[in-house]
Amino acid sequence: MQGRDPGYDTPVGELPDEVLSLDLPCGPEAPAIVRTELARHEGLGWIMGDAVLVASELVTNAVLHSGCGPEHLIHITASVQSDCLTIRVEDPGLVAGSAFPRWISEFTDAGAGLMIVDQLVDRWGAERDGGYRVWAELALHPAQASAAAYPTSVGAYRRAHRTGGRLV
User: Fold this and answer.
1) What secondary structure does DSSP assign to 72-103, as a single string?
2) Partner of 150 at 20 to 30 A CA spacing, among 93, 101, 157, 160?
3) Nearest-CA neighbor of 72 among 45, 88, 90, 52?
4) Residues 6+ apart with CB under 8 A from 63
5) Alpha carbon distance 134, 91 (integer Å)
6) Residue pLDDT, tens place only, 40-82
7) Sheet of 123-129, strands arranged across
8) Residue 25's beta-bridge partner residues?
């Protein structure tokens, strides 16, 4: 996790090339709605799977850990700016604390969400400003690039890209 949300001072609705903007009740159906709505945007190309998974995990965390209920709204945006897709999830921030990846043990079946997000995205972060915002950036690659062009998973490709070409 690093940095500040690059769109922090940009008013909602004024983000360049906004792909998605939703206000959803903070309930168990919110992650599925976000997955469905984001998957409709075929223009995201080969990063679609990663984008849908990241958005779903961030919304799931808001539903499970923000202290909000169905009477509260979660605001979700996805926008393309320069060479990246930025996904933002804002909740009312009713519970103190911050998002962080947890180590998984054989004794738990929960907590892998932010570890997965951390492996799939180039940068992510969290901020408090009235509410609580978690954001993540996924690099966009040239349109001719596709997951089929790489012999390993997209996640392995991203890690290789970040480590100077070493597949880890």
Assistant:
1) SEEEEEEEEETTEEEEEEEE---S--------
2) 101
3) 90
4) 26, 27, 28, 30, 31, 74
5) 9
6) 988 888 889 999 999 999 999 999 888 888 999 999 999 998 7
7) 18-25, 73-81, 84-91, 131-139, 123-129
8) 73
